[in-house]
Amino acid sequence: MSDELVLVREFEVNKDRERVEEVERTCEVGPSNKLSLFTDMLGDPICRLRHSPSYLMLVAEIDEEIVGMIRGCIKTVTCGKKFSRKSTKQHPVYTKLAYILGLRVSPNQRRMGIGLKLVKKMEAWFKDNGAEYSYMATETENLPSVKLFTEKCGYSKFRTPSILVNPVFAHKTKISPNVTIIPLTPADAVILYRNRFATTEFFPYDIDAVLNNKLSLGTFLAVPRGSYNVETWPGPDSFLFGPPCSWAILSVWNSKEVFKLEVRGASRMRRAFCKTTRVLDRALPWLKLPSVPNLFRPFGFHFLYGIGGEGPKKVKMVKALCGFAHNLAMECECGVVATEVASCEPLRFGIPHWKMLSCADLWCIKRLVEDYSDGSIGDWTKSVPGTSIFVDPREV
């Protein structure tokens, strides 16, 4: 197909919303005989972008018919670390990073170069706005997407984080009495995150904007019982000067207000099993059976981010925080709690999740410019993965 026949332009909400939603529906075809998650954007095609510092959505047209779309955003994140000349403390190295998401092409218009043209147009906008790198995320089994980006667009396979998903049951999770959970103010959380986690890969430079966003439900700190509580909390500076032997932290993002999910592709047997757990729980509530919520219709979820910790009992602390987050999601009538962590993240052992709902993710990256943010780290695309990553909830 000639490039002249395909017009790529900026998305116009009043003109394009319904037509974009129609293309999204035609693209919702999951793998056969396998559970798949589908997204209900609640009538807002840019819902996954609008909280980012800078974003753009493009559509592709043929004879005024929308046949494809792509979304992208830009932010500044940590891409490495270095030592200062005056101390042995490590400091973050930042880069301007772009993220591609929501690439769609109508099924009857594929293999015509439309996806490639959308990517190139988006990358041109990235470069014009100073982005040094661009990356995308997809399921490891989405071979057409992986092939497009790695073989035609010049991206390299970069990181393979894990998406961990846990159902929200009808009864509260019991939290260890040996752990105290303290809610932090956004200001206190910013200090703690910047001090302890600013060198974590993908840590956002504007962490204060994330934590102060209306969708952030709070940051919570887990400490051993008897060390601190809400009344004796001394503030982040004193805490960091003499922290307890073990502690952990996480923040909660209210994705329920942005979009909803729906599980499709489940067998009749699996659907019947889930329904049976709910029926039994309603009949025998005192047993507090782990009834599975109805995930086969649109449901909201909370996303856990900024998960970190220190000390020999940090995994136990994370487990307590996840229990607290489950109870918060239950009160908000969410279907699941989800998070994303590095594949080798040691704290993942404290994060409850269902294997059948969880999956491996694949991030691919490309360097857009010749120069680097800092000569000390060189080309980020060739760097060795660390044990942790910071997943920005604004891009979930």
Task: List descriptors.
396 residues, Aminopeptidase, two-stranded antiparallel sheet
CATH class of the largest domain: Alpha Beta
The largest sheet is: 13 strands, mixed
Q: What value does the average pLDDT take? A: 92
Low-confidence stretches: none
Residue fraction in strands: 25-35%
Number of helices: 8
Count structural domains: 2
Distance N terminus to C terminus?
34 Å
The topology string of helices and strands comes to: EHEEEEHEHEEEHHEHEEHEHEE
Net shape: globular
Level of helix content? 10-25%
Secondary-structure-based class equals alpha+beta
CATH topology of the largest domain: Aminopeptidase
CATH architecture of the largest domain: 3-Layer(aba) Sandwich
Oligomer: single chain
Please state the CA-atom Rg, rounded to the nearest Å: 22 Å
- Count of β-strands: 15
Q: Which helices and strands, and how do they pair?
A:
Blueprint: E1 7-10, H1 13-27, E2 36-40, E3 54-62, E4 65-83, E5 90-105, H2 114-128, E6 133-139, H3 143-152, E7 156-159, E8 162-167, E9 179-184, H4 186-197, H5 207-211, E10 216-224, H6 236-241, E11 247-254, E12 260-264, H7 268-283, E13 301-310, H8 314-331, E14 336-341, E15 359-367
Describe the overall structure.
The protein is an alpha+beta fold and 396 residues long. The protein folds into two domains: 3-160 and 362-395, Gcn5-related N-acetyltransferase (GNAT) (Aminopeptidase), CATH 3.40.630; 165-359, Aminopeptidase. 24% of the residues lie in helices and 31% in strands. It contains eight helices and 15 strands. The strands form two sheets. Strands 1, 3, 4, 5, 6, 7, 8, 9, 10, 11, 13, 14 and 15 form a 13-stranded mixed beta sheet that branches. A two-stranded antiparallel sheet has the order 2-12. The longest helix has 18 residues, at 314-331. The model has no long low-confidence stretch (mean pLDDT 92).
